[in-house]
Amino acid sequence: MDMLVMGLCFTLIGLAVAMLAFVAATRPETLRPAEQPEQLAAKPAAARFFSERIAIPAAPAPSIHIPVAALLLEIENHVRLEQAAAESFVAFPSHAQLHSKTTSRFVN
Fold first, then answer.
1. Structural domain contains residue 42
2. Predicted TM-score (pTM) of this structure
3. Is residue 107 domain-resident?
4. b/e sequence 44-80, b meaning 16+ C-beta within 10 Å
């Protein structure tokens, strides 16, 4: 019985501390002391992670133009190789086939 009463006391104390912390964190701005306009102007601007200014590069970086047809052929070849690997694994499942490297240039 003594342990139950002690547990209830500790629970109530913890609840009271949590309530005080919640009230202090959600206190409206009007209860805080008003700052003078001189004090507001004297404060340095807070550093922000996201800036309102957007840096636009002077010249876009040169990009490599690859024809779409060439990319489609590479993707089709990759799909064929992966399907063949899956079919061979289904036909003869083994640990070595499961962990073997692909012959495709794309890395999974």
1. no
2. 0.36
3. yes
4. eeeeeeeeeeeeeeeeeeeeeeeeeeeeeeeeeebee
